[in-house]
Amino acid sequence: MLIDGETRLLTLIGDPVAHSRSPFIHNTALQHQGHNMVYVTTRVREGDVREAVAGLRALHVAGANVTIPHKEAVLPFLDEVHPRAQAVGAVNTIVAEPNRTLRGDNTDVVGFLEPLAPYRAALQGASVIILGAGGAARAAAYALLTTFGLERLTLAARRPHQAEQLAAHLAPHDAGDALHVVPLGSAERLVRRAKLVVNATPVGMHPRTDATPWPAPGDFTAEHLVYDLIYNPRETRLLREAAAQGATAIGGLGMLIGQAAAAYAQWTGTAMPVEVVREALRTS
Ligand code: NAP
Q1: Which of 2, 58, 107, 247 has the fewest CB atoms in 10 Å of its CB?
Q2: In the structure, what pLDDT confidence band is assigned to residue 234 with cuts at 50, 70 and 90?
Q3: Which of 26, 35, 70, 71 is catalytic?
Q4: Which residue's CA is the closest to the ligand 1 atom numbered 31?
Q5: Which residue segments constitute the domains of the chain, with CATH numbers given?
């Protein structure tokens, strides 16, 4: 793709950003579809978020992604925020309208649900447990609460206070009183009876691939769906051990591509060629 005087800018703001797969994903799709846009990363320090958002507006960028540690901090500086981003309390995508309005969204919610589509029926009325209570757990819990009529949604965190805060924040979306909190160390019974176990901790992520957030794989059976949000490595120790017990293992790559696709569609007006992106990631 030739960058010229008409090329529109997309950027990722966060700190750090150098490790991000987003430029590869989006530039692969943009080039494939011939959009005259380019996606770059911009390192924005804490305290510079207001200026960074004003800069997006002044520079007429087409859109942006937002990553750690700015997902919450950007909210007050945007003109509009999608209800799902408002509910999660975090924005990962900014769409610039032609009239310079900046609209915030949280496409992690859509991305999280993408790999669960084949299991929709099995998840109705099911019991689900999320390990961890950080940013990814927030999006996952909101997505689960608003999509499936769960019998129980347990947040298991090593600091139960963090999970209590998340549960309190999501209470308005918990019409069925499904949300509960347990300390991670007391979650054994709930893991055993869960239909879906979600790892929303970074335990097992590169380079510490020998770690697992659930060192008791005997708790998994062929009835379990085990979904690790980690995408590097593709197959974590958690997923390997769960699959060895007959469980269905779901990696984080589908969510990564799903959240990117939901942002891309809003920036470009076209659906992301996800198979092209998936293949490019596989061979990169
Ligand atoms: P985060 O906001 O830092 O939250 C991490 C959570 O895990 C916190 O509750 C944290 O508890 C807990 N945790 C960390 N180390 C732990 C340990 N050793 N034992 C038990 N709990 C531990 O991070 P995040 O943004 O939610 O990301 C979590 C994971 O999801 C990362 O691996 C990230 O790559 C992945 N993710 C994937 C996607 C995707 O598209 N596939 C999107 C977002 C995130 P403390 O607060 O006590 O440390």
Answers
A1: 2
A2: very high
A3: 71
A4: 202
A5: 8-106+257-283 (3.40.50.10860), 110-251 (3.40.50.720)
pLDDT of residue 2: 87
pTM of the model: 0.96
CA of 180 to the centre of ligand 1 (A): 19
Q: What's the confidence (pLDDT) of residue 96?
A: 97
To the query of whether residue 71 is one of the catalytic residues in this protein, the response is yes
d(CA 202, ligand 1 centre) in Å? 4
136 CA from centroid of ligand 1 (Å): 7
Residues 205, 207, 208, 210: is their CA dihedral positive or negative? positive
pLDDT tens, residue by residue, 7-34? 999 999 999 999 999 999 999 999 999 9
Task: Return the pLDDT at 231.
Answer: 94
Question: Would you call the peptide bond into 217 cis, given omega within 30 degrees of 0 as the criterion?
Answer: no
* Ligand 1 atom 40 nearest Cα: 256
Please answer whether residues 204 and 236 qualify as being in contact, where contact means their C-beta atoms are separated by less than 8 angstroms.
yes
Cβ distance 197 to 226 under 8 Å? yes
The overall average pLDDT reported for the chain is 97
